[in-house]
């Protein structure tokens, strides 16, 4: 499955997409500073198994974010823990290539995956939880049309201290 927009292609990841570059993202403390995966240890083998399990899951859809022109893998976006009864899911985003930060690729990927979730999967709502100090991610979701709906006080640990988590959501207005 592939989704495209002006500059990017979202493609369901396969184990063949796991490279040393992908593994290196997960060991880059700046890339993972706001991600729960920062607590893990990863090898290409671990990631290939993870990607295989995600591709076989009915509750999760993991896309790689690729630049259309170069076919370069720059990050991932996931719709996770899809609840088909109540029709909602959670979006997670990783732009692993730091040279691509601040260029709007995250916003573009969020818009694409949101449209897919609403039109094709027929979800009613998508949510995301963002560390309050993760300004880039917050801006990307806001530019993609999400709304801030709450704050969970001192929810997450960041560099040894607690920070708030901002909850954002987007409702499907396509119905």
Strand sequence of the main sheet, in spatial order? 1-2-3-4-5-6-8-7
- As for the CATH topology, it is Aminopeptidase
**End-to-end CA span:** 23 Å
Q: What structural class is derived from the secondary structure elements? A: alpha+beta
CATH level-two architecture: 3-Layer(aba) Sandwich
How would you state the average pLDDT, rounded?
Answer: 93
What best-fitting shape do the alpha-carbon axes yield?
globular
Q: Percentage of helical residues?
A: 25-40%
Uncertain stretches = none
The number of helical runs is 5
Strand content: 35-45%
Instruction: Give me the Rg, rounded.
Output: 15 Å
CATH level-1 class: Alpha Beta
Work out the count of structural domains: 1
Largest sheet: 8 strands, mixed
> What's the number of extended β-strand segments?
8
Quick structural summary:
27% of the residues lie in helices and 37% in strands. The protein is built from five helices and eight strands.
Describe, in plain words, how this protein is organized in 3D:
With 175 residues, the chain is of the alpha+beta class. 27% of the residues lie in helices and 37% in strands. An 8-stranded mixed beta sheet has the order 1-2-3-4-5-6-8-7, sandwiched between helices. The chain has helices at 20-26, 29-32, 44-56, 105-119, 135-143, and strands spanning 2-4, 8-12, 61-67, 73-83, 88-95, 125-131, 147-158, 161-171. Strand 4 (73-83) and strand 5 form a beta hairpin.
How is the topology of this model organized?
Elements: E1 2-4, E2 8-12, H1 20-26, H2 29-32, H3 44-56, E3 61-67, E4 73-83, E5 88-95, H4 105-119, E6 125-131, H5 135-143, E7 147-158, E8 161-171
Parallel strand pairs: 5-6
Antiparallel strand pairs: 1-2, 2-3, 3-4, 4-5, 6-8, 7-8
